[in-house]
Design goal:
- The structure holds 2 protein chains of 2 kinds.
- Chain A is 33% helix and 26% strand.
- Chain A is an alpha+beta fold.
- Chain A has a 5-stranded antiparallel sheet, with no helix packed on it.
- Chain A is elongated.
- Chain B is mainly α.
- Chain B has a domain at 28-145: Alpha Horseshoe (Serine Threonine Protein Phosphatase 5, Tetratricopeptide repeat).
- Helices cover 65% and strands 0% of the residues of chain B.
- Chain B contains 6 helices and no strands.
- Chain B has helices spanning 2-34, 47-59, 63-72, 79-104, 109-129, 134-145.
- In chain B, α2 packs parallel to α4 (79-104), α3 runs antiparallel to α4 and α4 runs parallel beside α6 (134-145).
- Chain B is elongated.
- Chain B starts with a helix and ends in a 32-residue tail after the last helix.
- Residues 161-165 and 173-177 of chain B have low confidence and may be disordered.
- Classes of the chains: A alpha+beta, B mainly alpha.
Amino acid sequence: MLSFALALPVLAAPLSLIHALEVSSPRDYGIVMGETLLGEIRVRTAAGLELETASLPQPGSAVNDYLEVRAIQSDRQTLGEETLYRITLTYQVFKGVREAETLAVPALPLRFHHYGEIVETTAPSWNFTLTPIIPAKTADEAVVLRASLPAPDNSSASHWRWLLAFLAGLAGLGIYSAWRLGLAPFRRHIPPFARAASELKILVRQAGTLANYRQGAKLLHDALNETAGHTLFYGQLPHWLETRPEYAGSKAELEQFFSVSERIFFMADTEYPADYPLSRVENLCRKLASAYSVFS
Amino acid sequence: MLKTLYVLSLLALGGVVYHGFKLYQLETLKRTMANPDRVTVDENTPDILVFAKAMRYEQTGNTGEAIRLYASLRNAQDPDLRARAFHNLGTIYLRDGAVHWNAHGVLDYAHVSSQIELAKENYREALRLNPDDWDARFNLEYAWRITPPPKEKPKSDFQGSKSSVYSTLPGLPGGGP
């Protein structure tokens, strides 16, 4: 670590205003061609001094034949009655050497403003060691030039990552939607009479039309057919009730339903059956559903 | 809830379409770059294809066209591509300068000197853009090594050797001209 501590201000700055000036570099050795090197200047001043940043070298400016300023940063910190200025300069070296050489970073003038007056001081010059990349003993003719660079690799990795992430999100949303809507493979098994009952409930709320009634009756027929495993006709009802005794308690209701059903589906000039409204079909359906759940 | 699902699904679908299209574009670009002979350069040609074409010219010995195309990339948007173009320009100039230096030495002073200076300037620019370009560092140092000394008026007692680091003058027979 290079470090100089100056007890005295260098130029015209009065001793009372510039309290200390220090230059340091994290690495000042083993620098090679094209490399950047850092120099940090720390100035402790009396309160009230303002650094004139415009007087500092600008990035891209050449310092001398072999040094260019790549970046410059400055900040200030108040420490009680003092102000600490920290100026970090990044230089880039453009010099080829055959053997290690000690080179100098020139002194840097610094300007401050103090209540309308200009106070000047100078950060001292400091040295660094430039080392060759090509071994010194290698003859020029023996040096093999490095080849041209290929085109940059336009990596598709990030696009692949995003694509996979979006696909995973889409799949997740699909699975969640299927689960929410009870679609395959999350279809919940709802017993036929329970399913018909819930749909009948909706129909009962609607207008009491014949078409509506036919739709409701069909729902119960479908549930009966599904439970029986075949299309269940009126004539087959006694035999079916013998094989499924759990529904025997609804025998009279079922017979009445089948009778009304025959009337509304097969007879001409039929009207809405006021003697057996859709609400009774729904009640019958619920009774069968509860019998199903008790015995299954 | 359903609305949220719908919006999220649309967003995800949009992402899939966008990145799928980008991947398709990249794949098409890679296929074209693999056959730069088929590329016809005009003002609408993507910079990366211009680079690939320049590289092909360089590999086939058409350095004039390679220089022209690399030079057209000096203002490319992509700093990495720009740095590579400067690097390759430097390499073309340096290779030529080195060949002449090793073959003729100071007898070809004007040509060697101009080629080396051009190489150095391009390598410097490449390194300004990418200070970690180790190959540019290496070649630039070599360019410094073979930089001919400032031309002097030939002396009558020239002995074919100098005390400087540039004492090796390939191509000069021992004992002077």
